[in-house]
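ok trying this again, last paste got cut off
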Amino acid sequence: MLTTLKQKFRIWLFRPKIESGTVTLNQRRIFILPTRQGLGFAFVLLLMLLGDINYNLSLGYVLTFLLGTTGMMNMLHAFRNMAQLEIRAGRTDAVFAGDLAQFVFHFHNSGKLPRYHLNLQDGSGHSVTFDIPAQQNVEVRLPLPAAQRGWLGTGRLTLFNEFPLGLFHAWSYLEFDTHCLVYPKPAAPMPLPASSAQSGTGMLGVTGDEDFAGLRSYVTGDALPRIAWKVLAREQGLQVKQFSAQQGQELWLDWFLLPALAAERKLEILTRWVLDADVQGLHYGLRLPDIELPPGHSATHRAECLRALALFGLGDIETPTLSPSPSPASGRGERENPLSRLRERVARSAGRGQA
């Protein structure tokens, strides 16, 4: 009961908002409170002040106010350590259920002073600690467990620090519109569908010049036209385009050919088959109760099949997006056009004149 009331109070006080783009931490977004050490420090200062007053100790006054000034400076440093940081969410690669999703965030420090011992934490206690040099960008990865397939969000994140002496806790709330796609957990290795193995079907991908089949690392002697120049421009290394041609027949990974098993178990088996068929270079298709993907063999086709398996039965094929914020005039009807008002008045005047 008390935990629920605390959550409702925090929602009312801080008014969480899902954001996209770049977020800048200004004075309205940063909150500061003393820590337990800070409260203990303040209590000790109060006792020292009472002793100075009681015994009229001049040097005691100096020491007390010097320590008090140090505590106030600690509060300013805790605020300055986060002020004017620019934060945006990066791209998060898909993972399999049971793995860790690496959510990427980009921090930009435009100031001339470095930022020390910053902590980024989610609501379950998963956190990462990092520093940001002066006038530089830092990529921060927050690992979160992906327990089940579907879309995984970060929820509300807390960026905080207690620099430099741990007397004050400064924090800010962040909630970005970023999600990670979680594929079903692959089943244990098992042979591909028996029907294709008996009939010898399955289209085998061999080296050719027909279809784009992905990228590989550059090897001395590769033709220059095959180099992926756009990938090189994005500083992702020197890679070469691969093309393939297919031989043989098609392999279907069919939901309805599986025995009577739980839906999640079927998805795990189909995920394993997709991975094995892709590794073996087979030309394969995927058939589910609500979707059918034609046979193919490429990195894009593999991603489409895994995506369909991840979102099967969830009714959420597209990436979750921000819901548009309601208009201030919502619920009052659409705002009337002044030109339409003028036309109505002219029509009424004309009607009266004819009458």
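PB: full thing came through this time. The longest helix spans residues 58-80.
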